[in-house]
Design brief:
By secondary structure, this protein is mainly α. The protein has two domains: about 1-85, Orthogonal Bundle (Rna Polymerase Sigma Factor, Chain: A), CATH 1.10.1740; about 105-185, Arc Repressor Mutant, subunit A (Orthogonal Bundle). Helices cover about 70% and strands about 0% of the residues. It has nine helices and no strands. The N and C termini lie far apart (about 80 Å).
Length: about 200
């Protein structure tokens, strides 16, 4: 069944079908959620919310086809909901019981370093533009498919794609210029200092 899900066939409308679809698609959903919200912890919460929302309706969703489109629709809805009520995701603790995992910390830092400019640029966009860009470039959805997922006219999708792409490009170009200027002005010497010959 995992092979079927990978080949684009409709998953089975039972618990095994849900489990196997989840195994194949959850990492993609998590990546999209991260690009939409800019935080891995929140992305994990969003993916869990999507799966929890889909499981009770799985039989109907699987029989109807377009499971990925349904998952995208739920994900976008959850992102909008989380932004409207951010207090729902905040929890306060007097202390943090977990010890620091240095290995995972380094791995996360490496990913953040690579994704940082893109996530920062996406975060600067309005939520509608961000959602359209993520669906277009992570799932390669058509304008019509994005319009269907988001429940907006195709013309609005085209407009958001155009404006969002332009703003994203400008932000990334500006970030690259700033990084180059910073590197150029970095006072840290790249060569070992020459010592005076006193012989």
């Amino acid at each position: 069944m995992v092979d079927a899900a990978r080949s684009g066939e409709d998953p089975a409308p039972d618990d095994d079908g849900f489990r196997e679809w989840m195994i194949v698609r959850s990492s993609t959903l998590r990546r999209k959620a991260f690009l939409l919200c800019g935080d891995w912890s929140s992305a994990d919460d969003l993916v869990q919310d999507v799966l929890v929302a889909m499981y009770p309706r799985w039989s109907r969703i699987a029989r109807g086809g377009h499971v990925d489109a349904y998952a995208n629709r739920v994900l976008i809805g959850k992102v909008v909901d989380a932004r409207r009520r951010p207090w729902r995701r905040e929890r306060f603790f007097s202390s943090v019981p977990d010890s620091i995992d240095v290995t995972s910390e380094r791995a996360i830092s490496a990913v953040d370093e690579l994704d940082g400019p893109l996530v920062s640029a996406l975060a600067a966009l309005p939520a509608g533009q961000r959602a359209v860009l993520v669906l277009r470039f992570t799932d390669d959805l058509t304008v019509e498919a994005i319009a269907d997922v988001m429940g907006i006219p195709a013309g609005t999708v085209k407009s958001r794609l155009s404006r969002g792409t332009e703003a994203l490009r400008a932000h990334l170009d500006a970030s690259g210029d700033q990084a180059r200027r910073t590197a150029h002005l970095d006072p840290t010497p790249t060569l070992s200092p020459v010592t005076e010959d006193r012989s």
